[in-house]
Amino acid sequence: MPPFFSRNDAGDLQIEQVDASEIVARYNSPTYVYSRAAIESAYRALSEAFGERAHRICYAVKANSNIGILSVLARLGAGFDIVSYGELARVMAAGGDPGRTVFSGVGKSAAEIQGALEAGIGCLNVESEAELRRIAEIASEMQQKAPISLRVNPDVDARTHPYISTGLKDNKFGIAIDDALPLYEWAHAHPALEVTGIDCHIGSQLTDVSPFRDAAERVMALAHRLAERGITLEHLDLGGGLGIRYTDETPPAAADWIEAIRSVVDADPLARELPIWIEPGRFIAGPAGALLTRVEYLKPGEHKSFAIVDAAMNDLMRPALYGSDMAIVPAGQAPGERQPGTWEIVGPICETGDFLGHERAMDLAEGDLLAVLGAGAYGFSMASNYNTRPRPAEVLVDGGTCHEIRRREPLDSLWALEQLPTTD
Ligand SMILES: *Cc1c(COP(=O)(O)O)cnc(C)c1O
C-alpha cells in the first residue's frame, strides 16, 4: 500500500484518516482521491536529499495539473515544469511563481513564447534550432532578454516503455548533444537571449538510476566545453522521470535518485556551486492518488469473467494507452454474497481496449468499491469525455478533512460550447 493509504478496522481502504467509502458516499464514483501528506512527503524527501546543495524541484504540471495540487506544491516552494501556456496559466492561478517555472515542449507557439516572456518565465527549455531562432526574434521584438536552456538529448536508453522514452537520438525531443555547442555559441552572442543552463529529460517511469547518472555525466561534459568557451551557466536541469511502484517494480527511493546526481556533480569543481534542478511529476503525484470506482455488474464466463466498474478508459487511460499494470485493491465491501474469481476489470465504454486491469483474483460483489492505486499522476490529467462521460470529481484528503478540489462535471457542461446549426 502506498504511504498514507491503509486499512481501517473493518478492512476497508483509508486515505489518511478518511474512509474510501465515506468519500464515495459524499462525492459519488468514480472519484479521484489524493493524500496531501503523500504529496508533501515525496516533495520533501527529494528536497532533503539535496542537503546543503542549491537545488530547485520543478514539479511537472502535466502529471496532475489540478490547481489544488499545484497550490500545495507552491506553498512548499516548488518550481514548476510546464509544456503549454495553459499550464502556466494554471500555475499562476494556483499562486505559483512564473519566475520559478521552466517551459518545455517541442512545439511552443509564438503566442505561447510571448505569453511566457510577458509572465516572466524562469527559463525556456529550447528543443530545436528553429525554436531558438523564433524565441530570439520574439524577445527582440519585445525588447526583452529571454532566459534559455537547450534541452539536449544525451542519447541514453532510459529502458522504459517506448512511448515514454524521450532521450534517444531518434525521438522528437531535444537537440542532439553533439549539435548543441554551436547553438550555445550563437545564443550566447545574441543580445535578446540569456543562456542560463542545460536541460535534459530522458524518459518517464525509470526504475533504475544508471541512465539518470549517465545523462548527468554527459550534461556535465557539455557544461565543461561551454565553460572553455566562456559560457557560464546558472543551473543544470536534469529532468524528471523518477519511477514509482505500480505493482512489483522496485524503483529507487528519493535519496537514491538524488545520490545518483550528486555522485556526478558534487565531485566536479565546475558543478560544485551550480544549482541542480529536477522536474519530477509522477514521483510526487503518482503514489498520492487513487481512482475509486464501484463494481456495477459481475459477468462470470467460461473463459473470461468480467467485473464491470463505473470507471473507464476515459477516466484513467494508462492501462489502455500503455498497457500499464496498476494495482487494483478492494476499497469497501458491499453487503451480500461474494463471488471468487479471476476478473477482467473493465469499464462501460464501447471499446475492447477499455480495461483497467486484467486477470485480477478477487472475491467481488456488485456494489463493492475498488481503488486503482498509483493513479495520482497521468490519471485525471489524461482523462477525456469520450462516450459523453463527465470526468470524475477530485478530492484532496488532508488528515481527517476532504477538500473537493474539482467537482464532477455537470452533464450539460459537456455540450455547453456546442451549437445547433442555424439553418434547417
Ligand atoms: C513529462 C515530463 C516530465 C515529468 O516526467 P515524470 O516521469 O512524470 O517525472 C519532466 N520534464 C519534461 C520535459 C517532461 O516532458
Automatic annotation (TrEMBL):
EC number: 4.1.1.20
Domain Orn/DAP/Arg decarboxylase 2 C-terminal: 32-376
Oligomer status and interactors: Homodimer.
Every Orn/DAP/Arg decarboxylase 2 N-terminal domain range: 37-285
Annotated protein name in UniProt: Diaminopimelate decarboxylase
Organism expressing this protein natively: Guyparkeria halophila
Active site: 350
Enzymatic reactions: meso-2,6-diaminopimelate + H(+) = L-lysine + CO2
This protein's pathway: Amino-acid biosynthesis; L-lysine biosynthesis via DAP pathway; L-lysine from DL-2,6-diaminopimelate: step 1/1
Cofactors required: pyridoxal 5'-phosphate
Positions of substrate binding: 282, 318, 322, 351, 378
Family: Belongs to the Orn/Lys/Arg decarboxylase class-II family. LysA subfamily.
Modified residues (N6-(pyridoxal phosphate)lysine): 62
Annotated keywords: Amino-acid biosynthesis, Decarboxylase, Lyase, Lysine biosynthesis, Pyridoxal phosphate
InterPro entries assigned to the protein according to its UniProt record, in alphabetical order: Ala_racemase/Decarboxylase_C (IPR009006), DAP_deCOOHase_LysA (IPR002986), De-COase2_C (IPR022643), De-COase2_CS (IPR022657), De-COase2_N (IPR022644), De-COase2_pyr-phos_BS (IPR022653), Orn/DAP/Arg_de-COase (IPR000183), PLP-binding_barrel (IPR029066)
Domain of life: Bacteria
